[in-house]
Amino acid sequence: MQIVHAPHLPIRQDWLALREEPVLEPELPIVDAHHHLWDRQTGRYLAEEFGKDVGGGHRIVSTVYVQCRSMLRQDGPEAMKPVGEVEFANGIAAMFASGAYGPARCCEAIVGGADLTLGKKLDAVLDAMVQVSGGRLRGIRNPLAWHESRDVVSSPVAPPRDLMRSDAFRQGVSTLARHGLTLDAWVYHTQLDELYELAMHAPDVTIVIDHFGGPLGVGPLGVGPLGVGPYANEGAQVRAPWRRSLERLASLPNTRMKLGGAGMKVFGFEFAAAALPPSSEDLAAAWRPCFETCVELFGAKRCMFESNFPVDKGMFSYGVLWNAFKRLASAMSADEKASLFSGTAASTYRLQSQGDTA
Known about the structure:
single chain; alpha/beta; TIM Barrel; two-stranded antiparallel sheet
């Protein structure tokens, strides 16, 4: 069991069970573009647990596993330890590919965690990851979310300040292009201009922006709980600079946007404090400003829905989450829905198992 001190909300299965909904549009194919798996002192979320969520009624055809420092190698060079996570995710992918856990091809794409500041050593690490990935390695993510306030925390690992502007990191990102790999980036809205500079520096690398681009403290009516530091009650002031920075990023053809992740405390939504879990109507109403801004700026063909489970499971269930996404996209065309729910993720991460998606 891995000991990780993460700032995530606890998962309360009995509380989540208080809210059940019928599945909306059950035949709509879905690629879950961002999830994690782990076995930590705070709980286990592996094939069995994820399989139950994926098999809950929505038509999940494929998923993308994203780096979270699970199952790092115990021995060997430090630079090679993250190879163990890719090997682990590939093993989970093989379990789902057998059909024993249902029809979904979970972990069909893998985003690993190679240290991009390694310089010349990076190629060897990426080659090793490709070898153990079963052909599923599609991208790399490093911890990037940084803020000067100690109250703004969303990850168990804090990166150095201004990492995206370092020559070593930029060299590593450029190396990804030679290997045909994307860069996933979880950053706060205060870092989006740095991410823009990085995306400009590496035009041949697809930059996938995680979790709505990290607008801090934008909970309902701008009211945020503990965990968003200086952004509690400042949601209205956050939205304008967040939008301006996203507009610059959206002008670059090598950027993509993931829609989700708002179950983390830093977003400021307080659903976990209620007696009942939120409904899909509650979530859709709360997230609509973020959703509409991102789709307006990037377009549906460059946006993709993500669960960010099990991180976000502390605030709502898997079934309710995808119902909320379906409510958000209810007015969109069939082609736009196909992009948001499966097509963008499939093209970005080069997936094969898309069902009958457009």
